[in-house]
Every structure is written in structure tokens, then in C-alpha cells.
Design goal:
By secondary structure, the chain is of the alpha/beta class. The chain has a single domain, classed as Lumazine/riboflavin synthase (Rossmann fold), CATH 3.40.50. Helix content is 41%, strand content 16%. Helix 2 packs across helix 6 and helix 3 packs parallel to helix 4. The longest helix has 19 residues. The radius of gyration is 16 Å and the shape is globular. It starts with 12 loop residues before the first helix and ends in an 8-residue tail after the last helix. The model has no long low-confidence stretch (mean pLDDT 94). It binds 5-nitro-6-ribityl-amino-2,4(1H,3H)-pyrimidinedione (INI). 5-nitro-6-ribityl-amino-2,4(1H,3H)-pyrimidinedione binds next to strand 3.
């Protein structure tokens, strides 16, 4: 997550598009009955805790039951993919895994390696397991940027990551892509 900017559209535009395709798979934000895992890095913990707060608040607001949420801590962003994989291919897999971390360029000479391997690993896990694994890992130049992206408001990237998890779960359950 290098940028806070997203040029989006008003969801009502979809209404005008629906009758121009055979189906339209659109995200919903219903959390009841879903099991969600969060993998959180302890490195830069003052930031990742704020991301976790944002994610938990969003899951709660969407109706995810507390008993259906597991929070797992790893040392740093580099370790995130392995625990994400363990959640995604557990005997009773989670519906989505949300990964939360903060890799700050100013603090490390191996920023590219840590951030890049984390992102690659997260993508590998979701593509190999078909479980949505959301990349809620901040990659910023400064601590100030990371603090800004983890404010306790609607711009919190942990909150956005939770919303992305619900969106992906719902889209993958619809129409021609739904598994039997
Ligand atoms: N881990 C992070 O999550 N963020 C960082 O900014 C970071 N820096 O700066 O190095 C970092 N390093 C630790 C790394 O993720 C591993 O935990 C460590 O290398 C042990 O494998």
C-alpha cells in the first residue's frame, strides 16, 4: 500500500451497466457467518496495531462474530506469507486472510526485499489456495506516512483491507465463478 489515493466511482453507476452484460459480480459487505484470519507483523508494532484496530472495527461493523476471528502475530512482514498459508490451507480453512504489516523504507537497507517477498508470498498464497489473502501491508518512505495511513478513521488501511476481504469473499461466491 504505497498510496492512499483511489480514483473510484459512485456505486450507482453499476445500475446503468448491469443490463449491458450477462452477469455482474458485485461485492457486498456482509460478515455474518464468515471466518476471518488476520496475520499481523510485530515489527513496527505501533503502526500494525492501528491497522489491526481498523480491521477489527470493520469486521465487527460488518457483523463478523468475534469467535470467528483469529489473530496471529508474526515477527515481521517477511514471515507474513507462511502464517497466511497456514490459515488458508488449514483443515478448516478461513474464508479470507487479512495480512497487516508496515515496511518503512527509511528504516531498512533491505526494504525492497522484505516488502517484495511479502507481497509475492501473499499473492502466491491466494493464487495457490483460492482463499482471498488481502495485502494490508503498508510500504512507505517514512514513519509519518505510515502513521497517516493508519489513522483511526475511514482512511485506515487495516479497515480497507477488511472491506477488501469481504468484497473478495462475496464476489467469488457469485454466478459463474461460484464453486459448486
Ligand atoms: N519487517 C517489517 O515488517 N517491517 C520493516 O520495516 C522491516 N525492516 O525494516 O527491516 C522488517 N524486517 C524484519 C523482517 O520482516 C523479518 O522479520 C526478519 O528479517 C526475520 O526474518
Amino acid at each position: 500500500m504505497t498510496s492512499t489515493k483511489d480514483t473510484t466511482f459512485d456505486p450507482t453507476v453499476l445500475e446503468g451497466l448491469r443490463d449491458r452484460s450477462g452477469e455482474s459480480l458485485e461485492p457486498t459487505a456482509v460478515g455474518r457467518g464468515l471466518r476471518i484470519a488476520l496475520v499481523c507483523a510485530r515489527f513496527n508494532g505501533a503502526i500494525t496495531l492501528r491497522l489491526l484496530e481498523g480491521a477489527l472495527a470493520a469486521l465487527e461493523a460488518a457483523g463478523v462474530d468475534r469467535a470467528d476471528i483469529s489473530v496471529g502475530w508474526v515477527p515481521g512482514a517477511f514471515e507474513i506469507p507462511l502464517l497466511a498459508l497456514a490459515y488458508a490451507d488449514a483443515e478448516r480453512p478461513y474464508d479470507a486472510v487479512i495480512t497487516l504489516g508496515a515496511v518503512i523504507r527509511g528504516e531498512t537497507g533491505h526494504y525492497e526485499l522484505v516488502a517484495g517477498e511479502c507481497a509475492r508470498g501473499v499473492q502466491d498464497v491466494q493464487l495457490s489456495t483460492r482463499v482471498p489473502v488481502i495485502f494490508g501491508v503498508l510500504t512507505t518512505n517514512t514513519v509519518e506516512q505510515a502513521l497517516e495511513r493508519s489513522e483511526a478513521d475511514e482512511t485506515n488501511k487495516g479497515r480497507e483491507a477488511a472491506e477488501s476481504a469481504l468484497a473478495m469473499i462475496s464476489v467469488l461466491e457469485q454466478g459463474s465463478v461460484a464453486s459448486a
